[in-house]
Amino acid sequence: MIRIDELLRAYRQGFFPMSDPQDEKVFWCQPYKRAVFNLDSYRASRDVLRLTRKNEFIVTFDKEFAGVIKGCAAPRKNDHETWISDEIMEAYIKLHSLGIAHSIESWYEDELAGGLYGIAIGGAFFGESMFFRRSYASQIAFNKLVLHLKERGYLLLDAQIMNPHLRKLGAVEIEHEEYMRQLSHALQKKIIFL
After folding, report:
1. What is residue 78's predicted lDDT score, i.e. its pLDDT?
2. What confidence tier does 34 reach under pLDDT thresholds 50, 70, 90?
3. CA separation (Å) from 85 to 72, 167, 177?
4. What number of CA atoms fall less than 13 Å from residue 172's CA on the CB side?
């Protein structure tokens, strides 16, 4: 079982948990390069802006945390495994009950179409995972998250490990030393997420 105090200490020191899909053992990651979003230079795609203007999706915060983390834990289309174990889900649901973990949901015709979740500490938001059941649903939720973080004065949006989807959204990779510098600065802020 992941202890909440241990989990929060790990984030403050630049680590995050993952589980091995084979045996579900939790291990701590601290990559040499970190994927982050520059909140000041982030720009949503034209498609996301168009869909936002059309109000095809309704975006909410913390309305369906369990549904979002379960959506994120479901194996992807071409994959049969997930790094989000039951133990990890349980820990983040506990963090959500404490007001530390948050979900951003995209709804289409009253159904959960996609979203993402992460944790907020100080002026840092640590994005954990996103999923979609309808095209652009997670991107709409992500755009709303970025606008919210900018409005609240957050300094760091951590995306952990770079992948093609994050790169398409505008993430950049920074060296570990730079990440720790940004993290240290962000953790000094006192911001309430909602």
Report:
1. 67
2. very high
3. 11, 25, 29
4. 11
- The closest of 63, 156, 157, 137 to 102, measured between CA atoms, is 63
Tell me what pLDDT residue 115 has.
Answer: 98
Phi and psi at residue 57, to the nearest 5°: -115, 145
- Rounded CA separation 175/74 (Å): 31
For domain 4-11+32-187, give its CATH number from 3.40.630.70, 3.40.50.720, 3.30.460.10, 3.30.420.40: 3.40.630.70
Alpha helices in 58-116 (DSSP H): 65-73, 86-97
pTM, to two decimals? 0.95
Question: CA geometry: angle at 110 spanning 108 and 116, to 5°?
Answer: 60
CA 69 vs CA 46, 83, 85, 185: distances in Å: 27, 12, 10, 28
Q: How far apart are CA 157 and CA 154, in angstroms?
A: 8
Quick: pLDDT tens for 82-107. Answer: 778 889 999 999 999 999 999 999 99
- pLDDT computed for residue 85 by the predictor: 86
CB 125 within 8 A of CB 154: yes
- DSSP-derived pairing of the beta strands 111-121 and 124-132: antiparallel
